[in-house]
Specification:
Blueprint: E1 3-9, E2 15-21, E3 26-29, H1 38-50, H2 56-86, H3 106-122, H4 139-155, H5 167-190, H6 202-231, H7 238-241, H8 244-263
Antiparallel strand pairs: 1-2, 2-3
């Protein structure tokens, strides 16, 4: 299958390139980094097409970002729950992950969210492809949005249990919901878009199933949380004592982390 390269100028003024297969599918891009001059972009494109460009450091960079983001997502609820239980005054499991803001683990909660936000902002991924609809953001834009929402969750604390609702708490709730939706979009739409040249490997098919499973798990957890909150469950009831929102949020974060772990080439890697 022959490939051809195309130079184009982005909306931010930088130059970029894409490599298109003979069937019209985009098989490679500059990774979203962009170039200040057209000549630099042309030189790099020529090296890629000629097989003289070593892209392995860039690939290792993105794999490392994916593993870090996935690891932070998986670790966050565990660190918060264990830390609050072990350290004085030994708080029990909270009703929600956000409630740990009002425990001794406040600094960890804010710090991990900031770290996730920064790494998502640094993640560029793939440029837009021709099959994407106008309202579908690219990897870099989705990463920027996820960063914005993660910072919103960290900087605008949830309303403390028993207190009256405030605009700060509402901003927190909207930010948290938007963050989870963006993470689901990564798994369901963006992660499954790689390698769409009609020759997906068996490993790629399995990875796509893992991404989709994680994405739907995130959406399912959001839906159950919404139903639970709408039901206005008695906080003294047996169901409330099980802290279902905390566990649903944790499950959503674990699904998110699993998806990014798989994207980091930890499992079902394509043969060399």
């Amino acid at each position: 299958m022959t490939s051809s390269g195309e130079l184009y100028q982005r909306t931010d003024g930088k130059w970029a390139f894409r490599i298109t297969a003979s069937n019209g599918q985009i098989v490679a891009t500059d990774g979203g980094q962009g170039y200040e001059s057209k000549s630099d972009a042309r030189d790099t494109l020529g090296k890629v097409l000629g097989g003289h460009y070593d892209h392995k450091p860039l690939l290792r960079h993105y794999r490392t970002l994916r593993l870090i983001v996935g690891g932070l997502g998986i670790a966050l609820p565990l660190i918060l729950a264990i830390g609050a239980w072990v350290l004085p005054p030994s708080d029990p499991i909270q009703n929600t992950i956000s409630d740990y803001y009002y425990t001794i683990m406040r600094g960890v909660f804010i710090g991990v969210l900031f770290a996730i936000g920064v790494f998502l902002y640094a993640y560029q991924g793939y440029e837009r492809t021709k099959d994407m609809r106008w309202f579908e953001p690219s990897d870099s834009i989705a990463g920027n949005l996820a960063c914005f929402f993660a910072l919103g969750v960290a900087l605008f604390p949830t309303t403390e249990a028993g207190a009256s609702s405030t605009w700060v708490g509402k901003v927190h709730t909207v930010s948290a919901a938007a963050l989870f939706l963006t993470l689901a979009y990564f798994s369901l739409r963006l992660f499954t878009k790689t390698a769409q040249d009609g020759d997906r490997s068996e490993q790629k098919v399995i990875r796509d199933r893992a991404y989709k499973t994680a994405g739907w798990m995130i959406l399912g957890c959001i839906g159950f949380i919404a139903l639970y909150n709408a039901a206005d469950v008695d906080p003294l009831s047996g169901l409330a004592s099980l802290n279902p929102v905390f566990w649903l949020e944790s499950l959503a974060l674990w699904a998110f982390g699993w998806s990014w772990f798989v994207k980091g080439d930890t499992l079902w890697r394509d043969p060399k």
